[in-house]
Amino acid sequence: MKVVFSYIKPYKWPALIAICLMLFELTVELTQPLIIAKIIDEGIVADDIETIWYWGLILVGLALLAFASGVVNSYFSSHAAQSFSYDLRNALFSKIQSFSMATYLRFPTSGLITRLTSDVQQVQTVFFMSLRIMLRAPLAAIGSLIMAFVVNSKMALFLMIGTPIVVLFLYVIVKKGVHLFATVQRRLDRVNRVLQENLQGIRLVKAYMRMDFEGNRFEEVAGDLKTDTMKALRVMELIMPVLLFVMNMSLLAALWFGAIDVRNGNAQVGELIAVVNYAMRMTGNFSMFAFIINAFSRAKASAERMAEVLIIEEGIEKHVTSEKVRPLTVGSIKFENVSFNYPNTDKKVLDNISFTVMEGEKLAIMGATGSGKSTLLNLLPRFYEPTSGAIYIHNQNINDMPLESLRAMVGFVPQQSMLFTGSIYENVRWGRQAAALNEVHYAASQAQIHQTIENFPNQYETRVGQKGVNLSGGQKQRLSIARALIREPQILILDDSTSALDVKTESAFWEALNDKQATMLVVTQKVRTAKGADKILLLDEGRVIAFGHHDELMNTSEQYKQIALSQGKEGEA
Ligand SMILES: Nc1ncnc2c1ncn2[C@@H]1O[C@H](COP(=O)(O)OP(=O)(O)OP(=O)(O)O)[C@@H](O)[C@H]1O
């Protein structure tokens, strides 16, 4: 909670101004019954028209001032609340950006999205409402009680009968509410997850005709959300009737004994009217409590969820600003007895891997699916750290290098091509913002996609991503490669990134990379591609079972030979 509310600090002045204005409004509201009592007792009952005018004008003047305060309060409240939520959302986003891969995997993506959207919204609403009405309701209730004491303490005493019951009751409800709303937010995470998967996999859903299945899956999670929200709201619904019952009983007692006092001449009618007026205000404000406690419990649950992310200090990477970082010298890349388990798993995905690739060499990494090829690549830019062993670049342990410099050296093309919403030009330049247009063209030419782009009606301005042109798998792959090439990387990592390219395009691509100085680590299933590499590393269940050039492995590794022969002419020729 504290972590989240520390983001209010920069807006304490607008918030304080809003609170002062709200207090002014409240004071005016609370003095109104007092003035009305004066008008009745000293004006109407005493038949004094001057007093009626005098206090009447004060009443109108104060009402106008309260109205103006309300307007200005709204301005400051929304300024403070919007700025607070803007900062909070940005802080959450930067925190998530700084997560190491291991930390990132601890949270489901949908849970992070809900935190950045719904949870921030809940807290922002409560903050805004606190400055406008939430704080005002309890203060107005207490203020009304105090004013009732000022008018007639005996009558006011009856209004206090229910106070201990109310306080205890509200305490229990808030405790229960926070717990129930935390569950509601978790349910919302699940709804978001199912929705996200469904929309991302819409083609599969259609192709497999799984609309009904998906519909049921969505109905189930949406149903759980509804059930748990209703459970929480049902508890909240108790607040109003209980509070009203207690307050009305107190009011009845005050009226009953107040009327006796008026009849006996121990109190004035105006006093009784004023106390009843204050009691009604108390009741009115108490009825706001249901809404306030509902919102507060929700916001508290949301704040706790956001704090879970904000307080993380382990598994954080320093902010990477690759544009300004000078890459280091590459030299050779050396893996020395590297083993690796994914966090919270026992399975050794990489087992005692050792090999060396010299500067400018191309290493092809082969192996059956699940043998650890992608994992090995992920260790080089330090997405994960080896469980044991070390990786060296130019004889320097990569753990001792500044992360920014290490990553500035790398051009990374993942297994699944990913493009961002925007133009083709923006997507390629995403790799290096400072790149000029001719550099974008050059990188695209090397990636064998320039001509294809030129043939699009809008060429480099063609929109891709959501609602943009849907590019083919191979075109997406080539754009991803162009995005990596534009970085002029010293280490180029291609994770099976040429799988969708036809034979001709692929060989043109490798030829275009011939004059590159980069050291390349290329995961491939194709012997044809591996043949062009300086070295081939063959993995089996996380272990190196062969390492060397194609010709060498054809003679020394039975497994490699089998793979080559299974790919027949294409592999061998
Ligand atoms: N985030 C993860 N958490 C736990 N285990 C993982 C994770 N990612 C991969 N693995 C496991 O690590 C092993 C190696 O996976 P990896 O993706 O490196 O294989 P690969 O050789 O690249 O496979 P493919 O050719 O199918 O892409 C697999 O058994 C996989 O189940």
TrEMBL record:
**Record-annotated ABC transmembrane type-1 domain positions:** 16-298
Keyword entries, A-Z: ATP-binding, Cell membrane, Membrane, Nucleotide-binding, Transmembrane, Transmembrane helix, Transport
Q: Where in the cell is it found?
A: Cell membrane
State the Gene Ontology terms under molecular function.
ABC-type oligopeptide transporter activity; ATP binding; ATP hydrolysis activity
Which InterPro entries does this one have? AAA+_ATPase, ABC1_TM_dom, ABC1_TM_sf, ABC_transporter-like_ATP-bd, ABC_transporter-like_CS, P-loop_NTPase, Type_1_exporter
Pfam families named in the record: ABC_membrane, ABC_tran
* Keyword tRNA processing among record annotations: no
Boundaries of each ABC transporter domain copy?
Answer: 333-566
What is its membrane topology? Multi-pass membrane protein
Q: Which Gene3D superfamilies match?
A: ABC transporter type 1, transmembrane domain (1.20.1560.10), P-loop containing nucleotide triphosphate hydrolases (3.40.50.300)
Residues that span the membrane, as ranges? 15-40, 52-76, 133-151, 157-174, 238-258, 278-296
Protein name from the UniProt record: ABC transporter ATP-binding protein
